[in-house]
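User: quick one
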Amino acid sequence: MSAEYQPKVIGFLCNWCSYAGADIAGTSRMSYPQNIRIIRVPCSGRVDPLFVLKCFQRGADGVLVSGCHPGDCHYTEGNYHTRRRFALLREFLDYLGIAKERLRVEWVSASEGQRFAELVSDFTAELTKLGPRSKI
Amino acid sequence: MARIGVFLCHCGSNIAGAVNIPEVAEAARRLPQVVHVEDNKFTCSDPGQASIQQAITEHKLNRVVIGACSPRMHEATFRRTVAGAGLNPYLLEIANLREHCSWVHPGQVEEATAKAIDLVRKAVARVAWQEPLTPNQVGITRRALVIGGGIAGIQASLDVADAGYEVILVEREPSIGGHMAQLDKTFPTLDCSACILTPKMTMVGQHANIKLMSYSEVEDVSGYIGNFRVKIKNNSRYIDVSKCTGCGECAKVCPVELNSEFDENLGKRKAAYIPFPQAIPNKYTIDKRGYPPCRVACPAGVNAQGYIALISQGKFKEALEVLRRTMPFAGVCGRVCTHPCEQDCERGKVDQPIAIRTLKRFMADYELKAGREKATPMERTKEEMIAIVGSGPAGLACAYDLVRQGYPVTVFESAPEAGGLLRYGIPEYRLPKEVLSNEISYIQELGVELKTNTPVKNLTEIFNDGYKAIFLGTGAGISQKMGIPGENIPGVLHSLDFLRQVNFGVKVSLGSKVAIIGGGNAAVDAARVARRLGVNEITVVYRRSRAEMPAIPSEIEEMEQEGIKIQFLAAPVRVLTEDNRLTGIQCIRMELGAPDASGRRRPVPVKGAEFTVDVDNVIIAVGQGVDKAMLPEGLDYTNWGTLSVDPVTLQTNVDGVFAGGDVVSGPADIISAIAAGKEAAISVDRYLRGIDMKEGRPETVKRVEEVSKAGVRPKARHSMPTLELGKRKGFDEVELGFDEKTAVEEAKRCLNCAVCSECRECEKVCEAEAIDHEMKDEISEEDVGAIVVATGAGVLDHTQFSIYGGGVYPDVVSSLQIERMMSAAGPTGGEVLRPSNGAHPKEVVFISCVGSRDERTGSGYCSKVCCMYMAKEAIMLKEHDPETHSYIIYTDARGPGGKIFEDFLTRAEKAGTTYMRGQIDSVARQDGRLLISGQDFLTNETFNIPADLVVLATGLMPNEDAARLFQTLHISYDSKNYLLQAHPKLRPVETATDGIFIAGCAVAPTDVPESVAQGGAAAQYVLKLFSQESIEAEPMTSIVDIARCAGCLLCRQVCPFQAIEAESLRDGRTVASINESLCKGCGICVVACRPGAIKLRGFDDQQILAEVMAL
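Assistant: Done. Structure below.
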C-alpha cells in the first residue's frame, strides 16, 4: 500500500535442503519480508544461469539461488556445479550492467529456518537500498 | 487446451487468517485456461479430497492447482487424490500458500494476498506445461540393512528378521550392544542392563535371518528405495571369526596393554581383546593400527616394537625370535647400528626415544651368556644353487633369507674369515669378534655354506659350476685418497688398511703423535684404536664443524672422553717430511660456505690461514670406494664408481646377477646393507621362480598415524653403562649393555605405537589356529531394499570440563565411568572406589547439565536421560554402600513422561539423596577431598560441600564422524549432527529420502524404551515396504532428445550417478543415453547440455520458465 519501492525477488530453492529450510521458517512462524517468490527445483544444480537472466529481463530486482551446504547435496555434487556456474555468472552481470549484489548464491540446510528468514530480510533490505534495477 | 482447476485451501485459519481467499479466488478465475475455482476449509481431509475429485469429473479438468501447505507436506496425498479421479497424478501443481506465505507474513493481509495471487498464477502457468508421467514399477530387494548395533539397531534387526526377511546388521565396534552394554542398571526398573540386553544380543547373533557384520563400516551407498547397493568394509581383526572359540588365550600372552575404551579408561585391555565378556560376536579382535614408526624407519623393516614388547614381559628368548624373523644380527646391530629407528621413535616426543639398539643387544647378550643352542638346519626344498659373493652384512643377510626359503646357498669370501667390514673394519672394543662369529655361525648352522679364502673373479665360472643366481655384496673397501702431496710416504696410512691390519692381528707401529683426517665412523674408529695402541697425542682433523660430523654421536662422545681432540674447520694441504721421514702436516683453516649436493655447507679454505701440526703419523679417513679390481668383469658402473643396478630389483646389467650394499650405494651403514641383501633375496627368489620381479615393489607401508601421549608420565631413557676411562687400555668392549632389570624397565617405556606389536605370541597359543596377521580389510557389496540408520550418540568427554575439575582431579568422574565401576564385570569388580586412593567414597556430589542446555560449553539442548540416570546412580550407590550419601545439584530435575519416572526421582530422595537446586561455582581440592562450592537457588545461600567423588552428568553428543556416514547416505542432519526426520511430528522415523529410516539416539537424545520403540517403528516401515509387490520408481528423470544431441557427452561428465552413457546410432552418430533407473532427477545435465537436448521430466525448462514469466 505504501508508495515506497518494493524490490521484486525471485528465489530458486532446492527441494531437499533450502525449500525445506524455508518450510521450517514457516512452521516456526518466523517473519520475513513478502517480496520473495519461491520456485522449487530438485537441485540448485538444476538452475540454469539463463533462468536468472530471464528473471532480470522480466523485471526482477534480485535473484536468490539456494542449495544444500557443500558436502551435503542430496545428489552429491549438484551444488558444486551451482557454485561454479554462478561464480562465473556474477562476473557477467557487471558486464551487463546489473549490480553483482542483485544475485545471491547461498547454502541453506533443511534445519536452517532462522537462517533463511534472516537471509531474505537481509537481501530485501539490501535491494531496497540499491533501488529498482534499470532495464536491460 | 488445458482445463485447469484451482483449489484454494483455508487450512482452518492457517491460510485464511492471513490471506484473503476470496480475493485470490477472484484473481484465479481471470487466469487463462482456468475453468474452475473453488475453496475449501481443509482440502486434505476426506470431504476436501472428494470435492476435488468431483470437480475433476464434473468440469472435465485436465490440470489441477492446489493452493495449500508446502508440497513437501501433501504433494503425495494430492497426487493420490487426483489419480483417484482418473487424472494422471503428475498433472498437479501445488502453490505453497502456508509455509511460504501465510505463516511468514502474519498481519500483512494485503501483501500476503498479493503474494498468494502471484504464487497461484505461477502454479497455473506451470501446470499448463506439465505432461502426464507414468512411473515404472520396479522390484524390491527384500533385504534390509541396519547400520548400528546398539539397542535401537538390535530391535530393528530382530523385528525385520522375525518377520521372515534377511537383515544385514553393520556395527563398527567388535561387538554389538552400544552404550547400553556399558550400563550397570537401567532406569526406572533397575534391571541389570546386561541381563536385559544380552538375550537380545544373543538372538541377533544366532538368528538365521541376520547377517551380523561387526567391526565393519558402510563405505558407500548408491541406488534408491527397494534397490540400494551398499559397499561395506569389514575391518581386519586379524582373527578368523569362523575359527575363533573365544577362549582368550591370546589375550593372556599379549604383551601390549592399553586403556580399555569400554571401561571408560578405568581399566586396561590387551591389543588382543574382547571388549566385554558377553560380546556378540563372542570373538577376539587384534587391534593393529599400522606399522610402528621404528619399523617404518628401519631400512630392513625390523619390527622393534615386537621384540621390545616381549622384553618388557621378561620373554627374552621369544623376543630374539621376533628379531630373527627379519635378520640374524642382534648382537652386531645391537652394538654398531646407526639406529634410524630411534630418530623416529614417538617416545622421543615425550622425553627421549627408547634405547632400541641397546635392547636389541641385550637379547643377544642374554642368549650368549646362557649359551646358545645350536640352530636347526633349514629344510632344503629347492634345488637352484645360489652364490653370494662377499660375507659382509649385505651378503649374509641375503644368504639368511634365501636359506630360510629352502635354497642351497654358498657364500664366497676372499678374506680368511667372514664378516667383511664388520670384522676387518670395526674395532674389537665396539664389536667383539666373539659376538660376530657367533652370529655368523648361526647362519652357517642353518645350512649356508661358507667358503673363505675364495675370491671370485669370473661370473661365468660360477654359473658353470651350477649356480643359478649370484649376489654381489663385495662392499666399498678401499680408502679414498686425498690427493695431497706426500700422501704416499711411509707413515701415512689409510684408515681401512690400518683397521684391517689391526683386526688381522698385525702389529702396527705408530709414533707418539698421530693426526686422523676425517669425521666419519672410520676416522673415529681409527682414532680410538690408535689410542689403544698406546699413542699419546691424537688429533682428529675435520674440515667442517661438529654439527656436520657424520660419525655416530655416542662414538664421538666416547672418543673425546678418551682424550682425543678434534680440530674443526681444518684440512691438510701437504704432508711435511724431513729426510724422507714424516714430521707433520700443513693444514689450512676452513670456513663454511654455501651448501653442496649433500645439503651440507661446503667448506672453503680461508686464504692465508695455514698452520702446521707436528705428527709422526697421518691416518686418512676421508671416504671409501669400490675396488673395481676386485670385481668380475663385464659389469656396468655408475659415475661414482659403484655398481649400477635396477633400483627396484637390484639386478645388474648381467641377467641373474644382483648386487647390494656399499658396492652399489657407496659407503653407507650396516642396516642399509642388510636391507639391500634382503631386497636382493626377494629378487633372486622371484627370478628363479620365473615370476615378475617388480610387481608390488617397493612395498608401501602404512605408518601408524596418531599416537596418543595422554597419561604418559615423563621418565628418562636409561643410559648406557660404559667401561671406566681408566680401564680402557686394551680392546675390551667399552659399552657394557643393560642388565635384565634395566632392559625390562627401558622396554616398558615403549608407547606401543601400533598397539599390536606383531610379536606373534598369540599365534603360538591359539589352538583353533584362528590368527592371521596378514589379513586384509575386505570390501563386500550387498543389495538391499531398505536402510535403517541407528548409529547412536556418544557422551561428551568429561575431561574438557575443567571448571568442574574434569580432567584435573582424578576423583571427578563421568557418569559412564561410575556405571563401569558399579558393574560387577567392570574394572573395579563392582566396587565404587575413589580413583585417587582406591577408598570407598562417603560423600558423592552429582553435577547435572554438564555440557547440556548451554551452547557455550556443549550444546543448547537437554540430553533427556541425565535426571533419571543421576537418580539411578544415587540409588545404586546407596545399595552398594549404605554409608554413602549423595547430593544431586540440579538446574531442573525432571522424570519426563508418565509411568513411574517421576516416582523414580522421589525414590532417590527417599533413599537419602539430597536434591539441591543451584549452580556450581567451583570444584577445588581440599585436605585430600574435593570442595564443591555453589549457590542454592531455593534458599539463596551459598554451599560448600566436601566430597570424596564428583560425578559429572555429561550430555549426549553425536559422534563427530557421523556426518560423513550421513553424507554417504545423502540424508539430512542438523548442525549438531543429529538426523533430520521427514516430519518432526508425524514422521519421526523416516527421512526425506524414501527407503531410509532412522531410530534412536542418532536422531535425538533418547532413553532405552524410546530407542526400542523407534527401532521397532523403523522396522515396521521396512516391512511395509517389503509387503508391497513392487514400488513406483520416480518418473521425474531426464531424457535426451537425440535429434538435438550433439554427442559432446558433457552431460556424462557431470552426472554424479554415472547414469549417462554414450550410444551409437544406426547412422553412425554418437549421442548420449540416460539410464532411467540410475537417473535421480537432479538436472545438472540439463544445464550442462549446450544444444538444450536434455529434458528433465517434471522440471523441464518450459515449466520453470513459465513460472518465471508468470511472476
